[in-house]
Amino acid sequence: MAAIPVNFLLERLGTFLVKEAKLLGGIRQEIEKIREELESIKGFLEDADKKRDRNEGIKTWVNQVRRVAYDIEDAIDEFLLRFGTRHAGYGGIMNFLGTLSSAMTQLLPRHNLATRVQEIKKRIVEIAERRRNYDIQMLREDTSPDATIRQWRDYAEANFLEEAEVVGIEKDVKLLVNQLVGGVTGNNKKIYISVVGMGGLGKTTLARKVYNEPKVKKHFNCSAWVSVSQSFNTKTLLKFMLIEFGGIREPSSSKEAEENLLPSREEIEQMDEVELGRKILSYLQGKKFILVLDDVWDETVCIDINSALVENNNGSGIMITTRIESVTSGLETIRSVNFIRHELKTFPDDVAMSLLCRKAFPGSTAIMPPEFQEVGKSMLQKCGGLPLAITTLGGILCKKSTVSEWEKVNQDLSWQLGSITSILKLSYDELPLHLKPCFLYCGLFPEDHLIKRSKLIRLWIAEGFIEERSGATAEEVGEDYMLQLIDRSMLQIAETSMDGRVKSCRIHDLMRDLAISISREEEFSFILDMQVRRANVVSPRRMSVFGENKRIEDDEESVLSGAVGNIQLLRSLLFFRVGYISTPNLISHSGQFMLLRVLDLSDVYIEKLPKQIGHLLHLRYLCFRTHWELTHRNRRPKLPRSIGSLQNLETLDIRDTDIRMLPNEIIRLRNLRHLCMAPWNVDMPKGFSNLRCLQTLTGLDGSRKGIAAEIRELKELRRLDIEGVKKEDAEEIYGSISSMRHLFRLRIEHDDDHDDDYGDADFPFGKRLLESPPPRLQVLELRQLWELPDTLGSFNNLSKLTLTDGPFREDPFPRLESLPCLSDLRLYRLYNVDRLECGPLGFLRLRRLQLVDLTSLRTVTFAEGSMPSLKQLWIHHCGLAKVVPHGIQHLKLEVLSIK
């Protein structure tokens, strides 16, 4: 797909030439000619890409176009890097291009820019001439994104086919639920259910639907979902099981957990397989549990896991999804368990047609219009009854409104023998150009990885895949891109908030295989698996490294640096499950990563960030963390002062690093959009109000004088987390926050060092909070608040509210129940609240209510007609213990948890 780098390059060349920089002599003219030639070639690339698999000559031509586009991009980046190194931080790179002629000979060590441009121009002319030898047509294409952003709330209300609602599995869901809940007549042994079938049949979808059924949630005391995949590790699986079951001590756990001597996450990291197995056995004693092992490829997994599960004869359930029937053969001979095999079949014709209709004609009935039936049946034959193929095909066809367009799709499928691969490949070919690199980038994540919405969008932005549109930020456009990929079944929804917004997504194994295959062929990206250690890509632009959750020694660091032929061309470097690096030689030798835009170390522990990080002047995205053991063994980590040289940095994520203070140089990062800091107070240097592009600021220490004036200047903030707010500063800080017209999410933690007069009449702490709330505020968390704000009932756009650690005594329900958009309410550790009463017609849109550690609570009352939309209710560790709330019979709950 040469169109991706060409399209991206044309935009960069436009910026490069339009800026005030004056490229003297004939160099500017030569670059203009290159741009014009590429514009001409671009018009033929869509047709060439569709024909290249059938013609080796065309395939070679497309590869040549891609390579020359990459070479031009490299030349621009090296030019900017070398010319801007001495001037970083003094007005930006582009402002010094006017002095190009005097610096030209210093820019490129082996060639000056003029010579390189001439060579590239010659190659492009030859490529353009060569095109005439092939039957490549100029196609009109409309690859521009829609002018209007589809907001996430509109998406949530649209009639898209979600994974959990796939046609054809209703009977399977009912059968498996009954087998798990009803057990096997005559005994209470553990129940093993093996869901077997080929890739794309919907095994994971079925298992997730069963796992989330309210009847199943109610029947079992605890539950765990563990994704296994091909590169499993027994220790890692046991660790995830213990965490998923809830057998760990979180930092905010109640005293009950402390008394049970549950291990912390840090302690779990140090355990071996035997210790982990013992902890699981101990925790599950007396509990009826449900465990799902998704995507199992090796039969040893089942044997290893079974040995860690207690033989309590109370009907616990284990569900396994696998493509390989023999994986669970060892369980059939174990007398102490009940074993059930459930084989998924391909869809019959009528169900397949119904599913295709729902995808191709969203919002309509499941009946195919007569004029589409013949071509629809023809394409369904190629799907072979495979749900993934059908939904993917439907995602293509929903953009086609005429029979002739459907016939063209059918024709494109025919020559590829109708395999599932051809259908998935066609779904990629049919993507608009702006979505293709976004989809390929998702292939860098591990199998079954939960991809957070905000992270994925920030990575796309850092790579330059997304441009801001008029009236919308790049983040808003990126969210629209993600929804389009979900709409086309290229990505799957993994998590949503209670108001329907997508929180995270996944990429199906087969779609991921497709992305990896295309990326390897196009030199778009490469995956280095430390367990395999194969490297056969000459010059990928992006690389992700998969480890084994253990320390990387020096020899393995050399494997990383020698993984590809030309590592200097990398734009993205991501690490997953790498354990921690004892001596970060790879990162210290940053001279070999000079063109890097993304460095994601969020899944690898390092001792410190080396000062050489400041050499990566193109860096847009930087994320890292440190290990608790290293932090306590050495001095508290700090960011190097060289961080101030990263003038292009847009995202800095230092959560879980124990960094408590940022260097003064941080205020030079004028392009910083997202600053995500530790979950405790981080002291920002004076003058951080210069960071005018900030949209996200978390972990801010609000106790320092002058904070209110600083944050008042951050007009673009969408999310703010501020902690340690003192009584004397609170009102001024509230005033600054009220002026933030874009603020979407707010978390305020007040200083818990209260004096006796904290709630005095002159300033009742919290009572006058946000007298004029930000107009777009939807998510609010208040901690250590003495009184509820008088104006809280006027927060009309609020969809999620969390109140934590407040000493106030009043029942908060009367103040909150009239909020028109509130869908998620969480009350934690409100120690003096002794009753909660919801009146008729209160909380009309509330879907989730969590009451945790309300130790003085004695009564909860739901009047008839209250909370008509409530689906989930948690009452944990409250004073009323396990007493059923009054009026609970009026609620239409799907999940009820009282303990």
Q: Can you describe what's shown?
A:
Residues 444-515 form the Disease resistance protein winged helix domain. InterPro entries: Apaf_helical, Disease_R_plants, LRR_dom_sf, LRR_R13L4/SHOC2-like, NB-ARC, P-loop_NTPase, RX-like_CC, Rx_N. This is AAA+ ATPase domain-containing protein. The chain has 899 residues and is of the alpha/beta class. Among the domains are: 3-131, no CATH class; 152-162 and 348-512, no CATH class; 169-343, Rossmann fold (3-Layer(aba) Sandwich); 801-899. The strands form 4 sheets. The chain has a 17-stranded parallel sheet that branches. A 5-stranded parallel sheet has the order 2-3-4-1-5, sandwiched between helices. Strand 10, helix 24 and strand 11 (572-576) form a beta-alpha-beta unit. The radius of gyration is 29 Å and the shape is globular.
Shape: globular
**What number is the mean pLDDT?**
79
User: Helix coverage percent of residues?
Assistant: 25-40%
Largest sheet: 17 strands, parallel
| Structural Rg | 29 Å
Please describe the topology of this protein.
Layout: H1 3-18, H2 27-51, H3 56-84, H4 100-107, H5 113-131, H6 152-157, H7 170-182, E1 190-196, H8 203-211, H9 214-219, E2 222-227, H10 234-245, H11 255-259, H12 265-269, H13 273-284, E3 289-296, H14 299-307, E4 317-322, E5 337-343, H15 349-360, H16 370-383, H17 387-397, H18 403-414, H19 420-429, H20 436-442, E6 451-452, H21 453-463, H22 474-487, E7 492-496, E8 502-506, H23 509-522, E9 526-529, E10 542-546, H24 554-561, E11 572-576, E12 579-581, H25 585-588, E13 598-606, E14 621-625, H26 628-633, E15 651-653, E16 674-676, E17 696-701, H27 707-712, E18 719-725, H28 727-738, E19 745-750, E20 779-783, E21 800-804, H29 813-816, E22 824-828, E23 835-838, E24 848-852, E25 859-862, E26 872-876, E27 895-898
Parallel strand pairs: 1-4, 1-5, 2-3, 3-4, 9-10, 10-11, 11-13, 12-13, 13-14, 14-15, 15-16, 16-17, 17-18, 18-19, 19-20, 20-21, 21-22, 22-24, 23-25, 24-26, 26-27
Antiparallel strand pairs: 6-8, 7-8
Helix pairs in contact: 1-2, 1-3, 2-3, 2-5, 3-4, 3-5, 7-8, 10-13, 15-17, 16-18, 17-19, 20-23, 21-22
Domain Disease resistance R13L4/SHOC-2-like LRR: 570-884
Organism: Nymphaea colorata
Domain NB-ARC: 176-363
